[in-house]
Amino acid sequence: RCMSALHAALSSKLTRLELIFDDLGSDLSFILHCRYNIIKVHSCFYIDCEKLQARFDKLSYKNCVSVMSKTLQELTAHFPPKWDEITICVTKDQFIIKKCDEIVRDDDSVAVGMNFQVVCEPREFLSYDIQYQSDITFCLREFKFLLGLADLLNLPMTMYFDSRGRPIVFYFDAEELHFDGTFVFATIANREGETDPSISMTQSNLK
């Protein structure tokens, strides 16, 4: 809700933004100063929880791609918000964002599978280093939120990933603003009866 308010304020000439933390009241306030001395205040309640630290090493990942966040945002705009997950499939020649096995029922209540995907070429990326084929699934909602944040700052985003079950790491750096961001998302491990395509490809290369 606060992000939506911020986007709306940007279109009405936001001049200053204040963030105020109230530790005693567990309250975070967004104070938006707009033109014509208009001030808008949005507050949200938060709950303190145990701090968790993700363990990862970006250099240990086999695949790394970098792209402007706006490009990814335009691609994921085709995916309805009701979908919980998306899958990224990569090869040396293609980068595919897809949603599979969506159940659609026709008039006779017959369930059919619906596949939806967007295909990109390596030339659409700032850098594209794919060591072997990978197929990973993670949460769409959090991904869209992250893209919105990076696009607001007009920053490129770098993704580190490889096999299913390992986290995917999103990284952006804003040197002129003196900060960087690292976000770690969990990915779905192999479902029953499935095999990781990256492992299959590695085994075929050894034959």
TrEMBL record:
Q: What is this protein called?
A: Uncharacterized protein
UniProt cross-references to PANTHER family, sorted A to Z: CELL CYCLE CHECKPOINT CONTROL PROTEIN, DNA REPAIR PROTEIN RAD9
Q: Which organism is it from?
A: Rotaria magnacalcarata
- Coiled-coil features, chain-numbered ranges: none
Please provide one cellular component term from the Gene Ontology annotations of this protein: checkpoint clamp complex
Organism domain of life: Eukaryota
Which Pfam family, giving just one, matches this sequence?
Rad9
One GO biological process term is: DNA repair
